[in-house]
Amino acid sequence: MTDLSDASRAYAADAHASSTGDPWPLAIATYNIHGAVGCDGRFAPERIAGVLKELDADIIALQEVPLGGSRTPNVLAELQRATGYAAAEGPACDTREKRYGNAVLSRYPILSVRSIDLSFGSREPRGALDADVDCHGHMLRVIATHLGLRPAERRDQIRRLLEKFDTDEMPVILLGDINEWFAWGKTLRSLVNHFQAVPAPTTFPSRWPLFALDRIWIRPRHRLVHVEVHATPLARVASDHLPLIARIDG
C-alpha cells in the first residue's frame, strides 16, 4: 500500500469532514495525457489542466503522467494544483531520474492506494493504480491502468488484473488505455465476460479518432448509465488521446 501525499491527506480530511448529501450520479473519466505533449509536439501541462476543468468529472484516471525525478517534471503536482483535487500516483517506471505512469485525481477522499505490477518480460514497464475512494460514505474501488502494445502482453496483464477483482466489498471500476485495436480481440473478450459489454466510442488519434483504445467498465454493469467522448477543440490538441467520460448511478 502506498502512502498518500500530505496535500492529498489534508484534502481528504477536509472533504470527509464536510461531505453531505447523495453523490449520484458520479462523473468518471479516463485520459491518456501523452506526457502532457500535444499533437503539435509542445509540452503544455496547462492545456491538460484546461481539459480536466472542461470535463468537470468527480474522479479522473490519467495515463502517461510524468511524476517527477531528476529528468522528469512532476505534471501530476501541476494538475493537482490546477484542479484542487486529491491525487494518487502509481508509477510504472520509478527511478531517481524518471518517475512515470498512472494517476487518479478525485473530488472525494482517496482512502487507500495499491500498486499492481503488470510488467511483462523485457517489455516497457506497465502497472495499475488501485484506489479506494469514499464518495460521501459510498465506497468505490477505482483501478486505473495502461496496458501493453502486444496481444500476448495484454492477455497476461488482464489475467493478472482480473485476479485482483475477486471481491464483493464495493463496486469496481476499471478504466484506462487498454491499447486494444481490434474490436473482438481476446483482451476485450475477457473483459466483457467479466464486466459485460459497455459503449466504446473512438478516442484515438485525438484529431480524427478511429480506435476505441480508452475504456470504462464498472461492476455491477447496471450502474453505468452513459459513456461519451470529450472532443472539444482543446482536447483535440492537448494529447493524442481524447478523454472518455461516463456517468454512474447508485
UniProtKB/TrEMBL annotation:
Q: Which GO terms describe its molecular function?
A: endonuclease activity
InterPro entries the record matches: Endo/exonu/phosph_ase_sf, Endo/exonuclease/phosphatase, GPI-anchor_lipid_remodeler
Q: Which Pfam families match?
A: Exo_endo_phos (PF03372)
List keywords of the entry alphabetically.
Answer: Endonuclease, Hydrolase, Nuclease
- GO terms, biological process: GPI anchor biosynthetic process
Q: Domain Endonuclease/exonuclease/phosphatase spans what residues?
A: 29-241
Its protein name is: Endonuclease
Species classification:
Bacteria, Pseudomonadati, Pseudomonadota, Betaproteobacteria, Burkholderiales
